Amino acid sequence: MRTCTVLLSVCVILLFFQGTMSEQGYSVGDYARDFELKGTDGKMVSMADYPDAKGFVVVFTCNECPYAKAYQERINQINQDYASKGYPVIAINPNSTGEIEAETLDQMKKRAQQEDFTFPYLADETQEITRTYGATNTPHVYVLAKEADNKFKVAYIGTIDNNYKDADEADKHYVREALDALMDDQPVEEAKTKAIGCTIKWKQA
């Protein structure tokens, strides 16, 4: 009986730490896993679909958050400026559609058309990828750099720039600076910032 109690306690402790680790998500320097999620065109998309990519700008964003809306044009422009250089944007909507009807795939399609998204916009319906990456806000950005073994190392985590209200007033462009450093084979000087935006809406148990 005592042995069973000890084993049960050990299992509970292990589950606790596993849960804690998954909630923490990635840190700069970690390797990011690939994913396969449905996009607004109905097709499944993964990083493996981009064999020539040198890295990615993975953005957790959504339809209705004011911060996400404020950054949509800037995210579009980042993709236009850097996709041809090997660093395309992949946007992922992390929000539970059960909590917010405006975040459904149909609404995502409308948003992508309205804003002329030049990048794939994917739905993380199970929220597994969001938890794995550790995203907490919309938008929340992960810049990934491809290494020789085809693994993708996290080079930057955080916000896009330092002025969500007015792009012209921003004087720190964290994502662009990270991408420019990677293209010049230089270290990313400011590799982590605080993601500014709405909190992600998780599924209710």
Label this structure with key terms:
alpha+beta, 5 helices, 205 residues, Glutaredoxin, eight-stranded mixed beta sheet, 10 strands, two-stranded antiparallel ribbon
Task: Explain briefly what this protein structure is.
This protein is of the alpha+beta class.
Q: Mean pLDDT score, rounded?
A: 90
Question: What count of structural domains?
Answer: 1
The total beta strand count reads 10
- Write out the strand line-up for the largest beta sheet, numbering strands in chain order: 1-9-8-4-5-6-2-3
Number of continuous helical runs: 5
* CATH homologous superfamily placement: Glutaredoxin
Helix content: 25-40%
Can you tell me the CATH topology? Glutaredoxin
Tell me the structural class: alpha+beta
Q: What is the N-to-C order of secondary-structure elements (H for helix, E for strand)?
A: HEEEEHEHEHEEEHE
CA distance, first residue to last residue:
32 Å
Largest sheet: 8 strands, mixed
